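Notes from the 1:1 (GR / supervisor)

We went over the backlog. Supervisor wanted to see one worked example end to end before approving the batch request, so GR pasted a single chain during the call. The sequence is below; no edits were made to it. Supervisor asked that the structure be written out right there so they could see what the output format looks like.
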Amino acid sequence: MSPVGRQFANKWLKTEALLGNESVAAHIPQTRMYSSEALRQMLHKFGMVVIKPVRGGGGYGVIKVTYSGGVYSFTNMSRRVSFASYDAMFRALNRAKVRRSYIIQQGIHLASIGGRPIDYRVKVVKQNGNWVYRAMVGRLARPGLFVTNLCKGGTLLTARAGLSRSLSRGVAKRKRQEMRNLTNTCIGIMESSFPGIEQLGFDYGIDVNGRVWIFEVNTRPQ
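Structure output shown during the call:
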């Protein structure tokens, strides 16, 4: 992969670019590079975090880690294991995760449909010098999973259907427009930071309180 290609694939670099814009930064979950101390601090602060490889997609290697009532747990796909101490959990987590660099992201309690979390993918492409919306869809997690990726059994919905089924009617319409406004702002940031990009996929989540979060920007969206 070329140096530019590696930059495009690097979740940390793309997150850093977006954090440079104050209005966008408010929608990005707190993110840190993976280490024992960073994970411990974020677990004690948020109670739930998600760790994911710096490079890669499709939900590959993504693990949810929680801390509640003195118990540490992590969920890898549908398998959840619990530990009485942080050190025991961290050792097991290092055995479970794939051998890649990881980031830690603040966990978000997503709005759901029938107990299944849903998030959204907005895809845009550059045509004749202009950015055009290609898709705006919801991805509903397979029962029992926290990842929504279609390759992991998630269900594809229109964004309109996903929003209307997981939020109240008035809120749903506002959140759809909010995702479009954020996308338009982020396109400019990404184009400035990574010249030459021609397609982008934005992964959004909306939490149980209706707040929109940007989980990831993909430069080679599926």
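Supervisor's comment: DSSP finds seven helices and twelve strands in the chain.
Batch request approved.
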